[in-house]
Every structure is written in C-alpha cells, then in structure tokens.
Write a structure and sequence with these properties.
Keywords: Cell membrane, Coiled coil, Membrane, Transmembrane, Transmembrane helix. One of its GO terms (cellular component) is plasma membrane. Belongs to the UPF0421 family. InterPro entries: ArAE_1. With 360 residues, the chain is mainly α. The chain has 2 domains: 137 residues, no CATH class; 203 residues. It contains 13 helices and no strands.
Length: 360
C-alpha cells in the first residue's frame, strides 16, 4: 500500500482541526475533521480558492438552516426540503462544487437536540471553517506538491515506452493486440500527465518577478507535454497503418526509420537538457537531411510514388504518417528553441525543481 503526500496531509489536517475544535468545545468537534477531509486540494492555489468558496457555501447553508429551523422547526421533512433549497441556491450562484460540505453544515446545524440553537449553529459553523483553514495551512506548509519533478519524470517514462514501441512497430516485430493494449495504457498515462500539468499551471507566485519566472517554466513544461502527445500520435498512426508500413519499399522504409531515429534522439536530448544532464546547445534540426544516406522524407515519398507506383500500400495512409512526423518535428523544434533561449537568456531562473529520486 502506497501512502501519497495528499493522504498524509489529509490526516495531518484532520488531526490539527480536531485538536483546535476540542480546545474550543468537545461536543460536535468531529465536524472539523469532516470539513478538513472535504477541503484538502491537490495544489496550494485550489486550497486558497477553497477557503473563499467554502466560506461562501457554508455561510449560505448555515443561514438557510437557521432561518428554516426557526420558522418551521427540526422535522426531518423540513431538513430534506432545506437541503433541496440549498443545493438549488448553490447551483444558481455557481457554487455547486462546494455542495457536499455546505449540505453537511446545514445538516449538523439542523440536527439540534437541546440548548441555545443560535449559539450551537455558530459553533458548528466555526468548526467547519476550522477544518477548511487547517487543510489550507497544511497543504501550504507541509510537503508542497512537486509538480515539476512529477511532470518531468512522467514525460521521461512515457516517452521511453513510446520510443520502444515505435522501433518495434517500424520493423514489424510486434503483435497487434499487445501493442493496442499498451497504446491504450499510454493514452491514459498522458491524460493523467495533462491533468498534472493543469494543476501545475494553476500555481501562483507571491511576487511579480516570481510570476514571470514561473510563466517561463510553465511554457517549457507545456511544450514538453505536447511533444510527448505528438510522439504518442506518431506511434498511434504507425500502429493503425501497420500493414501499409510493412509493405513499403525498403528504400522508403529506411528513410522513415532515419526520420524517426532523428526525432526520437532529439526528443531524448531535449528531456535531458531540461534536467541539465546535457549542455543547452541549440540543435540544428536540418543537419541530418544533408547526410549521404538520408533524404528529406517528403521528397523520398514523392519520388517513390512517382517512379515506382504500387498498390501494396495506401499512399493516403503513408501521407498521414508523414504528416504526423512533420507535426512531431515542428513541436520538437519549438521546444528546442525555447529551452535554448531559457538557459541562454534567463540564467537567473534556470533552475527547475526536479528531484532525481522522484518516484513515478
């Protein structure tokens, strides 16, 4: 069983919330722990937004509960009607995402047994907000998310798997259904990677200079994620049109292998450059085309279909594959330019927070 940082932080937030609530009043203090559970978020920025939105939603729930209980009593039918009204109001004011905790607040306030109702309602609302604030403090101070490490190592792992299958596919050394299963797995991993990047993109700096520095890094990681997606597109197209690739003339197939090898090598170099394992020297993406045995892939394809036309493969399908290769090359060239510029012109903020011991 793996205990992630978020699970650990949720437990700490619950402990802190319960300790504070018990210092105020032991009765009903468990509500603080429940609200801490609801309020824990995957990044600091969302935790900050949660404080504001949960306060608004819980305040609406508390006020509505007090009004309905004061007018109509504490019957279970009244409690149910109040919940319906609360959910409708939250949807109207675009706070439907805090419905869960707001309804919990309303229910615990209307679950009044004896004593001063208004005092009890204020106390329970206070317990709820103690839990929300505890979750924010813990998420900010304890084990902040390491998005740069996670995104980098996920890109590295996914790209390595993609390159492995591309090399096997282009040689016709694969079993169709096995590759399809792995492609589906890679797609789900890329979707999770994109979710990680979206969380990273939401992070905010405390100064203007820090915001500009973070923006540069976010652009580089965005392009790195997109390059990984383009590599996946290449694998998917080669797999989809596997029979056409296998039936290509050997000369054209060799040119596609040259092109793929050059692109995958460049991609690996760019990933190493981000972690500063290789120098930040701009790659000349056109160097390989002038080599004696490597031609421009489009020129080689056009020459092949003009000189020796064949029905053994679909020209349209091969053209789709070549178009995907051009998209992939374009994305890598852009990533090459911005990483080179980042390390050359922004030396004051060239440090990425990548920990080499990061577990995937």
């Amino acid at each position: 069983m793996k205990l992630g940082a978020r699970i650990f932080k949720t437990g700490i937030a619950i402990i802190i919330a319960l300790l504070i609530a018990h210092q105020i009043n032991g009765q009903g203090a468990i509500v603080a722990g429940i609200s801490a559970l609801f309020a824990m978020q995957p990044n600091v920025y969302r935790s900050y937004k949660t404080i504001i939105e949960q306060f608004q939603g819980n305040l609406i729930g508390a006020v509505l509960a007090i009004i309905m209980a004061s007018l109509f009593g504490f019957h279970i039918v009244i409690i149910g009607i109040t919940s319906i009204m609360l959910i409708s109001i939250l949807q109207k004011v675009n706070l439907s995402h805090v419905t869960g905790l707001a309804v919990v607040t309303q229910l615990i306030i209307m679950d009044h047994q004896d004593g001063a109702f208004l005092e009890s309602a204020v106390l329970r609302f206070t317990f709820v907000m103690i839990g929300v604030i505890s979750a924010f403090v813990v998420n900010t101070l304890f084990l902040p998310p390491k998005f740069e490490s996670k995104i980098y190592y996920q890109c590295l792992s996914i790209s390595s798997d993609i390159f492995k299958w591309i090399r096997l596919e282009i040689n016709g050394s694969t079993e169709f259904h096995a590759v399809k299963r792995d492609i589906d797995n890679i797609r789900s991993r890329i979707e999770k990677l994109e979710e990680q990047y979206n969380l990273y993109k939401e992070e905010r700096a405390y100064t203007k200079q820090g915001s500009i520095r973070n923006l540069r890094k976010k652009i580089i990681f965005k392009e790195t994620v997109l390059a990984t997606r383009r590599a996946y597109d290449v694998l998917r197209k080669i797999h989809r049109y596997e029979n056409d690739v296998i039936n290509l003339p050997e000369e054209l197939k060799v040119q596609i292998k040259f092109e793929l090898d050059e692109l995958m090598t460049l991609h690996e170099e760019l990933l190493m450059r981000i972690s500063k394992k290789v120098p930040a020297t701009k790659h000349d993406c056109q160097t390989g085309i002038t080599e004696p045995y490597k031609l421009n892939i489009m020129d080689a394809f056009l020459e092949e279909i003009n000189t020796t036309p064949s029905d053994a493969y679909s020209k349209e399908h091969i053209f789709v594959i070549i178009g995907t290769l051009f998209d992939y090359r374009d994305k890598l060239e852009h990533l090459d330019r911005i990483t080179h510029s980042f390390y050359k012109f922004h030396k004051e903020d060239k440090k990425f927070r990548i920990e080499h011991s990061e577990e995937l």
